[in-house]
UniProtKB/TrEMBL annotation:
Keyword Zinc: yes
Coiled-coil segments on the chain, per record: none
Cofactor(s) the protein needs: Zn(2+)
A Gene Ontology BP annotation from the UniProt entry: proteolysis
Annotated ranges, domain Peptidase M14: 1-196
Protein name per its UniProtKB record: Peptidase M14 domain-containing protein
Family: Belongs to the peptidase M14 family.
MF annotations from Gene Ontology: metallocarboxypeptidase activity; zinc ion binding
Length: 196
């Protein structure tokens, strides 16, 4: 719900763990699409059972077609505009509150032939990030490929932002409902990493 204002508002008033936007869909009474699974990249890939669903009533509903949510349309357009600008996109971080992981692409494949050419640099940056976090807070973060640590899933925001970019998936906290102190600690750890 990080990109969806309506989804975020719903998490504050009704269902704290709601993960979809609140966009009504035609021909169903079910509401919303999981923006993480709606990106226009590897949308047709069928990952592990349960991680993506074509069922509009599922919390992991991928949408009717690739990139069809208003949020993904807007973020994709902004990303393209920034990428074409004079400075491009140099780094991309996808924040999650669950676990202490720094993950590199891909979520849809662990096959070496599919991995990005910039993966060695991504791992290097990930190790540097983990070292900076360890130095600032003493917490250990694991650096690995997204597909190697979690069930294969389509997290299309990573490739969308990946043209010569060093993406980092930083997952923090103690589950999906991280306490405020864990969020503040995560912000402090990231500030130490960015400063280093």
């Amino acid at each position: 719900t990080d990109m969806s204002m309506t989804g975020f508002a719903y998490t504050q008033t009704t269902n704290r763990l709601w993960r979809k936007n609140r966009q009504p869909r035609r021909n169903t009474t079910c509401i919303g699409t999981d923006n993480n699974r709606n990106w226009n990249y590897q949308w047709y890939f069928e990952p592990a059972e349960g991680s993506v669903s074509p069922d509009p009533c599922s919390e992991s509903f991928k949408g009717r077609c690739p990139g069809d949510t208003p949020e993904n349309v807007a973020v994709s357009a902004l990303s393209r505009k920034l990428a074409e600008g004079p400075h491009g996109i140099r780094s991309y971080i996808d924040w999650h509150s669950y676990s202490q992981l720094i993950l590199t692409p891909w979520g849809w494949s662990c096959d070496a032939a599919d991995l990005p050419a910039t993966l060695p640099r991504m791992r290097e940056v990930g190790q540097g990030t983990a070292a900076a976090i360890k130095a600032s807070s003493g917490r250990n973060y694991t650096v690995d490929g997204l597909g190697g640590l979690v069930r294969l899933a389509r997290l299309g925001d990573v490739p969308l932002h990946l043209d010569g970019v060093v993406p980092r998936h930083l997952a923090r906290g103690r589950g999906f409902l991280a306490p405020l102190l864990a969020l503040l600690t995560g912000a402090s750890e990231n500030a130490a990493n960015e400063a280093g």
